[in-house]
Write a structure and sequence with these properties.
single chain, about 400 residues, alpha+beta, seven-stranded mixed sheet, about 30% helix
Length: about 400
């Protein structure tokens, strides 16, 4: 199976800007179903009724957490997906229950990289919570728009996109994606498959086949130890969706030991890596959520500092002294590397020179909805151009699994 990670649901920058976590200031009354209606999530309410779940979520003895997609989130679904869901009650039932947890989780109860089990009958019951130092939070990479609308039998959090079960881990997704075949071959060659198939979580910046072609003859010119170091430089412990870098360029410590700088371009929703160095890279697909982390596809192979054993390559990617490759233009003391979860990662003051525009610090409320939609469309187009699944194809395998889960 190719990476199916619902590219439609990518948490692009401007959606993140609109999703700065806010505490509910609007009084709510009644059950979580009443709260859903009070917050304007009328499509979710209608779909819950169609799936026969309204009575379940009105149970006065219930203790529910509902991650409620806004009406816009449902409008963004491909028409073919909407039709298939509404024509299959079992599928719709499982799809909606993937947004409901059988326990009350206030925002303060949730931790970064926490897995919360939902009520779906699908094999993958978990959603991943991430809370970042810039004040943003995500659920499986989807921005948490507002939180803590408390009802009599639970709590409702608003999210900007729908959620779906995630069926693959990082390695399985890469194996099923033709444009990542060279990365997969190298992971196998240097015995990294088992490591990246583990619980993690990991953030993987995955070079495309074209990126490795441009970097030739790297594999043949470096020692095995140095080549493995290059691969590990593309892996960061923890889960960092693009929301983590909004208005806060990051210095992330990789499994190789050196840091990679990540900045977000507000116009494209894409990320620039090591933009101030001689060997930058940019993402071509972002926020590809996996069961053990997230994958971002990049257009160049990143260059870590290597030891004296590494040999010189004729390709341009190794013409620069290796020790200077990932250096940031910011003083090290101003942005120390961190392997900790995003909530503790300090912001870097170094701008990414490859970003077409510096991330805006304007309040989220000043960004028009039309801009969000345009940015989302642009990101989906970029992801499709990378050879990844289209939105409709992305849902196909998930919907089939949901249909037989009960």
């Amino acid at each position: 199976m190719r990476i199916h990670l619902a590219l439609l649901l990518s948490a692009v920058l401007l959606q993140c800007a609109a999703a700065i976590t806010r505490t509910s200031s609007t009084p709510t009354t009644g059950t979580v179903v009443d709260v859903i209606n009070q917050q304007g999530c009328t499509i979710l309410a209608k779909w819950l009724d169609a799936a026969g779940l309204t009575a379940t979520l009105q149970d006065p003895k219930g203790t529910f957490t509902v991650f409620a997609p806004t009406n816009t989130a449902f409008h963004n679904l491909p028409p073919s997906v909407v039709k298939e869901l509404l024509n299959n009650t079992t599928m719709l039932h499982n799809f909606l229950l993937h947004h409901v947890a059988p326990k009350v989780y206030l925002y303060s109860d949730m931790a970064d990289d926490e897995l919360i089990q939902t009520l779906t009958d699908h094999a993958d019951k978990n959603v991943r919570i991430n809370k970042y130092a810039n004040g943003l939070a995500t659920v499986d990479g989807e921005p948490l728009r507002q939180q803590d609308f408390v009802g009599s039998n639970g709590v409702v959090h608003l999210i900007t996109d729908v959620l779906h079960p995630i069926e693959t881990d990082i390695v399985q997704a890469a194996v099923g994606t033709a444009d990542l075949s060279k990365l997969v071959a190298l992971l196998k060659k240097y015995d990294l498959v088992d490591a990246l198939s583990g619980a993690g979580p990991f953030t993987v910046f995955a070079p495309s086949n074209a990126a490795f072609e441009a970097a030739r003859p790297m594999d043949g010119s470096l020692s095995a130890a140095d080549m493995k170091a290059v691969l590990l430089y593309h892996v960061v412990p923890g889960t960092f969706f693009s929301a983590a870098a909004y208005d806060t360029p990051l210095q992330l410590k990789t499994l190789q030991g050196a840091t990679v700088e990540v900045a977000l371009d507000e116009e494209t929703g894409m990320m620039a890596l090591n933009g101030a160095t001689a060997h930058p890279a940019n993402t071509t697909a972002t926020n590809l959520a996996q069961s053990n982390g997230v994958v971002h596809v990049i257009n160049a192979v990143l260059q870590p500092p290597l030891g004296p054993s590494s040999t010189s390559s004729e390709s341009s990617q190794s013409s620069q002294p290796a020790s200077s490759a990932p250096a940031s233009s910011a003083p090290a003391s101003s942005a120390p590397a961190s392997s900790a979860p995003a909530s503790s990662a300090p912001a870097s003051s170094a701008p990414a020179s490859t970003s077409s525009k510096t991330a805006s610090s304007a309040p989220a409320s000043t960004l028009p909805a039309s801009t969000h939609a345009a940015s989302s469309t642009k990101t989906a187009s970029t992801n499709a151009a990378s050879g990844l699944a289209t939105p409709a194809a992305a849902f196909a395998a998930v919907l089939a699994a949901l249909a037989v889960a009960m």
